[in-house]
Amino acid sequence: MKKFILIFVLFPLIFLNALCQEKAKLNNELIECGKNVVNSVNLSFSYDQHTKDPLFYLGLKEEIPISQTININSLVNGEIFVGSKTYEKIYGTNLLIGLRLGSALRKGIEFRDNIQIYADILSGLSIFNFPKTNMFYAGNISKIAMGFGFKNYVIEISVGKTNSDVLTLTSFQIGFNYSWIRN
Predict the structure, then answer these.
(1) What's the whole-model pTM score?
(2) pLDDT at 124
């Protein structure tokens, strides 16, 4: 786990901070580090390791700057999910908060100024139906995500785990993000 954190969390943070500092020196046409609220919509597919069934997610994320010197942002994420034949069409919503190391939107003059890499660390609440009991349940969810992209477009890969009294979902999720600056 320590190697995972070192490779997938600290390295992107150091790399992005260096790029962000260099980008700030170029000219005024570039988006400055830590000054923009960025929204992104996410459509993704997940594979539940226990049931082997697909889950589909539609999410909205808001990235809010914390600092202008280091590229770390607070992150709010809301998702709606549906799927799973085993659980007879489970559906629900996830509400998560956490940190984003990096940014989901970069626009610059040179090719390298447009490349995005970020890491998300999220935790929150999951509310879902459970058809076998015909009731709604609440559980906690934790997720780690990595995004790779160009300008407004990102491919995001994440691993998440939802725990509750009746259900544990461990999923590997891959999706597509489109990002924009909120005015």
Answers:
(1) 0.71
(2) 92
